[in-house]
Amino acid sequence: MHWLAVRAAQGDLPSELDQLQARVPIVVPLRKVLHKSQKLPQVETLLHDVEYPSASLQPVGWLTRLLRKGRVLLLIDGIDEVPHDKRQAVRDWLKALLAEHEHTAVVVTSRPSAVPDSWLTASKFTGFSVLPMSPQDVGTFVDRWFAALLEAEGWSGYRKYAERGRRLLRAELDSIRPAAQMAANPRLCSLICALWLQNQGSLPKDPMSLHVAALRLLLEERDIQRGIGSTEGVRLDLGSKASLLVSLALWMTLNGATEMTESRTVRILEKDLRWIRPDPAGNAKSVLRHLLIRSGVLRETKGTVDFEHSTFRDFFAALGLVHGDHFGFLVNHAHDPHYEDIVRMAVGHCGSAEADQLLLELVQRGDREPEHRERIHLLATSSLEYAARADAEVRQEVLRRAKALVPPRDDAAAGLLAGAGAAVLDLLPGPDGITVEEARAVVLAAGTIGGTTASAFLKRFQQHDDPAVRKRVHWGLDRASRAPSPDTNGTAPRAL
To answer: Is the CA virtual torsion 183, 250, 337, 261 positive or negative?
Structure first.
């Protein structure tokens, strides 16, 4: 949203967004606005409510005149961050505004699970899904990160080293799937660059080791390298920080929350600090402030605390669930997409015997419940990548269930199958012996998984008779393209 606002203000939006040119962008962060006033803003107070720069200097009625001329780009951020019982009010507010100012351009963001696809179709909205950064985007990000490094103090004489590092890191991201998946997120891509630099030119190869290394860098090593001590008068070792973060993540997971109030966070920390030794020399409020400022994992927004990225919350929640022997909770929630990463990471936190048992219980639940069978069996398959060691017989039991789900029958099934990761590539059939519909879904699944193995598989379909299959092959082989190739309806494949 801020990218759109800045580019619109500068008048240099890409040609695909010409319809948004020459408009005044206004970002409306719903959670911030509602937290501040507990009510949705009116046009007369909108600039003040969203803390628009120089709002007090604008003439009376300036925004209203812009709206009437159709010159406003309204960027409404975070429907999912609005309490469920207030989302209808947001919808009514937006519909009323558009009824009066129908030529206003509006972009609204939300997590997909917060509202149905048809939530705003009556107001002529079109739904889009945000894709992760493409490999080209990631490559551009890495290039710019190393370029910025050379501008940092003390690095100007290391141009050759930085250039070589840029090339090597991009090559590693092409070959290490967990790192490539994390790098699709800009914030984590920056972390991976720093991790690569710290490790003098290498990255951990499996997902759990990558997360552990990244979190160790954030929680401890970054400050040590910078010579930063207890700037808030609080000293916590790595284990103590992890223990506190586990408690916060576990509370959010058990209560189905993505954030908590600052007061609740303090109460949770107060209980844990009784067992932290040596004494961190601070009360719960100062410890929270220390974690917010120094950890790089937590953040605070207007009295609420959450994790910088859901992958960190899921990592610590999974650790807490495994340490607490809450395997029944993990299995019982395995059908819920919100818990998939937690289950996978829990398998990674387990010892060998525990991981085998958890994988078998996932398989058995999928066997018992046909309505959840496909999702749970594929979750077990994707969890194999996280297991440090899995018994050969257990692995075969998991893969046997996954094999029963190929070829995928449609795009939705392809999306689920792709979620199981590289483990399913060896199971995908074709191009001979499958229908056109299955070929489209198979190619979509492989293209979504990505990587060199997937590319080799996709090349087998390059001469397929069906043009839709060939278009999807092109998309899979050319992930550097900023826009996915269209499917048979001329739109981006929905499962992507």
So the answer is: negative
Using DSSP bridges, classify how beta strands 304-307 and 24-29 pair: parallel, antiparallel or unpaired: unpaired
pLDDT at 229 over 70: no
pLDDT tens per residue across span 109-141: 886 556 776 788 888 888 886 667 877 889 899
**Are 378 and 419 in contact, with CB atoms under 8 Å apart?**
yes
DSSP class of residue 327 equals H
Q: For residue 293, which phi and psi values (nearest 5 degrees)?
A: -85, -40
| Residue-wise burial string across 361-377, b where 16 or more C-beta atoms lie within 10 A, e elsewhere | bbbebbeeeeeebbbbb
Q: Which residue has the higher pLDDT, 253 or 29?
A: 253
**DSSP output for 388-401:** S---HHHHHHHHHH
Continuous segment of H or E residues that includes residue 192: helix 186-198
* Positive/negative CA dihedral, 146, 148, 152, 155: positive
Q: Residue 261's beta-bridge partner residues?
A: 304
- Check residues 91 and 87 and name the one with the higher pLDDT: 91
Helix runs in 117-185, H state only: 135-151, 159-175, 177-183
How far is the CA of 135 from the CAs of 139, 267, 309, in angstroms?
6, 43, 21
* Rounded Cα distance, 134 and 203, in Å: 20
Question: Residue 143, Cβ neighbours under 10 Å: how many?
Answer: 15
Residue 264, strand partner residues: none
Neighbours of 324 (CB within 10 A): 12
Neighbours of 121 (CB within 10 A): 11
Structure confidence at residue 269 (pLDDT): 93
Q: State residue 72 phi and psi, 5-degree precision.
A: -110, 140
Compute CA 87 distance to the chain's CA centroid, rounded to the nearest angstrom: 23
DSSP 8-state class, residue 324: T
Average pLDDT over residues 317-330: 96
For residue range 169-223, list pLDDT tens digits in order.
Answer: 888 887 676 777 778 877 678 888 888 887 777 788 778 888 888 888 888 876 6
Rounded percentage of the chain residues whose pLDDT exceeds 70: 89
Q: What is the pLDDT of residue 25?
A: 93
> What is the rounded average pLDDT for all residues in the chain?
83
3-state SS assignment for residue 105: strand
Q: Which residues pair with 76 in a beta bridge?
A: 28, 108
**Type and span of the H or E element at 455:** helix 452-458
The phi and psi torsions of 50 (rounded to 5 degrees) equal -95, 10
